[in-house]
Amino acid sequence: MLTVLGEQAVLRRPCALLLGAFDGFHIGHRTLLDAAKQTGLPVAALTIMGGKQGGSLFLPAERRVVLHRLGAAYTLEYTFTEQFRETPAVHFLAALFSRICAGAVFCGEDFRFGAGAEGTPDLLKRMAPCPVAVLPLKEAGGEKVSSSRIKRLLADADMAGANALLCVPYFIQGTVEHGRHVGSGLGFPTVNLALPAEKTFPREGVYGGRAETPAGEFPAIVNIGARPTFGVQEKKIEAYLDGFSGNLYGETVRLFPEEYYRPTTAFPSAEALKEQLARDIARLRERSRK
Q1: pLDDT-derived band of residue 185, with 50, 70 and 90 as boundaries?
Q2: What is the C-alpha to C-alpha distance for residues 17 and 1, in angstroms, rounded to an integer?
C-alpha cells in the first residue's frame, strides 16, 4: 500500500528516500528504485507536481498508481509554486530532513533543486544525515533517458518507443463522464474522459490499446482529440471497450493507448465513420490475438 504524504507531513520511520521530480517514472529512475530497495528500508519517493514544460507525463493520481505498482511505500508530494521555486536549496533540505527520517538517499547525477537550481548532489551529501548515493544517468540508444525525450516520442505517436523508456506504460486516468452518446447511436458505445490541460498527451488521433476498469481489463480503441465528423472541436478522450457492456459513469478508468492507428478524420457521413470503426476494431482484435 502506498501512503501519500504532503509537504508538511512527518515520517519518523527510517526510509530510503528518492529525490527527483519524477514527472514520469522512467528506466533511469528505476536504477534509483532498485538501489533503494537493496537497503531493505521502505522506499519513499519525493515527487514535484507542476512546473514542467509541456505538461506532466503523469498527474498526481496517476503517479500514485505508478509508484504503488513499483513497490514504493511512500510518496512525498510537493507542488511547484512560486514559493517552492524561490526556496533556497539549504532551506529546502533542512526542512525536508527535519520531517523525514532518511536512512539512505538516492538521486541522479543531474539532480538540481532550490532557487536558481543552486542545489547539487554535493550539497545534498553535505547536509544529509545519512549516506547519499548519486547514480549515473542512464542511456538508451546513445541518448539520455529523460521525461523530455519521452514527451517527444509521444508527440510522434511512438507509443512503443515511449513505453520502452517508462517503468509503467503510459496511461490516462480519469472519471467517466456523460458524452453526447453518438457512439451508442452508431452501435459503438464509448467511455468519455476529460483532457486535463496540465497532462502531456500523445499526438491526436486514434489508437489501439486497452482499458483498466472496475469491471476488468478490456481491449480498447482510444480517440484523443476532437470529433470533426460531427463538428465537435472540443478535445476529449473517448474509448470503445471491446467486450464490455454496462455503465461506468462516475468510475475511475485507466486508458493505455499502445499503437497509433490513424489521425482524427472528418468522415463524410456517420455511416462512413461506422465502417471505419469496424475496421479499427477488427485490427484491435487481431492484435489482441497475437
Answers
A1: very low
A2: 17
Q: Check if the beta carbon of residue 218 is closer than 8 Å to that of residue 210.
A: yes
Q: What is the chain's length?
A: 290
Which residues fall within 8 angstroms of residue 142, CB to CB, at 6 or more apart?
A: none
Burial profile 50-70: b = 16 or more Cβ within 10 angstroms, e = fewer: bebeeebbbbeebbbbbbeeb
What distances in angstroms separate CA 99 from CA 83, 90, 288, one per listed residue? Answer: 19, 15, 48
Residue with cell 544529509: 128
Between CA 146 and CA 274 the distance in angstroms is: 39
Q: Estimate to the nearest angstrom the gap between the alpha carbon of 83 and the chain centroid.
A: 25
The torsion angles phi and psi of 181, rounded to 5 degrees, stand at 65, 25
Distance CA 162, CA 202 (A): 10
Non-local CB neighbours of 245 within 8 Å, separated by 6+ positions: none
189-198, 201-210, 211-220: which has the minimum mean pLDDT? Answer: 189-198
> Which is it for the CA torsion 184, 190, 194, 197, positive or negative?
negative
**Nearest one of 284, 278, 210, 214 to 246, comparing CA atoms:** 214
Name residue, grid cell 544525515.
Answer: 129
